[in-house]
Design a protein that fits this description.
Layout (H helix, E strand, L loop, with lengths): L5 H9 L5 E2 L5 E6 L3 H18 L4 E5 L2 E6 L9 H18 L1
Antiparallel strand pairs: 1-2, 2-4, 3-4
Length: 98
């Protein structure tokens, strides 16, 4: 796993309009749900996936809003794994976790 260049990060973020650069090491997104329990169920699915990859995002649940941010600690920045993860999170959200 290698840290991505600024050019690579910008290219990946172009494909993910809902994900925003938080600083040089992090990207983040807010997901909105119709109710609290749908958000919690979504977080449960994210947690299962994150555990299987041994790569864990920061997650905050604020009623119907779930906020996530991710980075690769060991690489001190963003890697392909971070973008693989967020693509999967978005797929889970689109599959009906809303």
């Amino acid at each position: 796993m290698e840290r991505l260049s600024e050019e690579q990060i910008e290219k990946e973020l172009e494909k993910l309009p809902d994900w925003k650069r938080l600083d040089e090491k992090w990207i983040g997104r807010r997901y909105r749900f119709k109710d609290f329990l749908n958000g919690v169920r979504f977080v449960d699915k994210v947690a299962e996936y994150a555990e299987s990859k041994n790569h864990h995002p920061f997650i905050s649940i604020d009623y119907k809003i779930v906020t996530m941010k991710i980075s690769s600690w060991q690489m001190k920045g963003l890697t392909d794994l971070d973008f693989e993860m967020v693509n999967h999170f978005d797929e889970l959200y689109e599959k009906g976790a809303k």
